[in-house]
Amino acid sequence: MGLISKARVKSPWIVHYCCGSCNGCDIEILACLTPYYDVERFGILNIGNPKHADLLVVTGPANRRSSRVLKNLYEQMPDPKLVMAVGACTATGGVFHNCYNILGGIDQVIPVDVYVPGCAARPEAVIDGVVLALDKLSKIK
Amino acid sequence: MSLTELLIGLAALVLAPFVGGFLRGVDRRITARMQGRIGPPVRQPFYDFLKLWGKAPSLPNRASLVWVWGYLLLTMVTVFMLFVGQDLLIIFFVLAFAAACLAFGAYSVRSPYAHIGAHRELLQMLSYEPILLLTVVAIFLQTGTFMVSGVLEHGQPLLLTLPLAFVAVLVALGIKLRKSPFDISASEHAHQELVRGVYTEYSGRTLALIELAHWYQLVLILAFVALFWAQPLWAGVLLALGAYFLEFVVDNVTARVRWTWMLSISWGKGVGLVLLNIVLIQFVFSSARV
Fold this sequence. Notes:
The structure holds two protein chains of two kinds.
Chain A: H1 3-10, E1 13-18, H2 24-32, E2 45-46, E3 55-59, E4 62-63, H3 66-76, E5 82-86, H4 88-92, E6 102-104, E7 114-116, H5 123-138
Chain B: H1 3-34, H2 44-53, H3 62-83, H4 88-107, H5 112-143, H6 148-153, H7 163-176, H8 205-226, H9 233-253, H10 259-289
Helix pairs in contact in B: 1-3, 1-8, 1-9, 2-8, 3-4, 3-8, 4-5, 5-7, 5-10, 7-10, 8-9
């Protein structure tokens, strides 16, 4: 593993986007940044700018409005990039799945690398998902 | 310039990024501890730099690349000049142009977030530049020279006669390092302002170069702080590290403020303190010396 791939694994910066979830998963993701879980010890930063981010963390189902924003965010991220879908809604549409405005899971819009199940997904599960994503990132040349 | 001076300057250019990156890592670690977190390893800034270097290029335009390289190279020039003992005034003029390059790069793209960040960056420069330049004038009045080498040869520590100017320099240090309460153009941490303020449109390698320039700038500013107690060198280094630690504490106990407040603090209190110090040098300390 080269120096740069090692650095990639050690410093994943995330951008967090809520597609229109109930905010349960968003709160759990933000809980990861608090002193109790403190993901910054693994070099993870919530950066808030897609152009600086390596990992797009999405919550909520894809709907007709937010899917355009989601696609735009994904396209603004420079390679190598990964997408993590957090929560049941992001995977399948969840409790919203038959609503008139819902397209389904976000994999209808952008390619997803890691699915984190749960309603809401627990912070431990979110961190496990990030670890899986990092494993995938380390294999990118 | 003698050969040894040249070698010291080149050594400073090579070592400064390592020292600056290490100090940034210490900053993140201590900040995390102050917030009750464990914090990233001290070598984290180097991981961030390498990762950013390995990202796919995505440039908004070629002009921004020129401005980023200008920012880095001019900052390197100032570090070199300081360590070979050149003129302090010229160092700060070149540093001002280097900092302006960052803002011009943000102006060269069409993103409104970058533009607002650039406005704020220029406001921050407007705040700290008078303090730094007037402090250099005060140093001149005390030592009779603008040259760093002359300041190093000055027998008495500058802090004893320039205490008020030193306090003003600490304010300028906070603004220059973009620490709270002065992190209005962009934060050194991943705090969110208008997306990422002045850095919004930089990504991948250009962001890595900006980070490198920040490490050089950190070393430069701390070396300037160290000049206030230059005679035994370790005392100056301790002074600079103490000032840096003070910035962590202030960073953690204050919130971001509006630019009007920053300007009133730096121009009212900061410049006022330096001017008062200059008056003291002229009338009180000089009579004591004669």
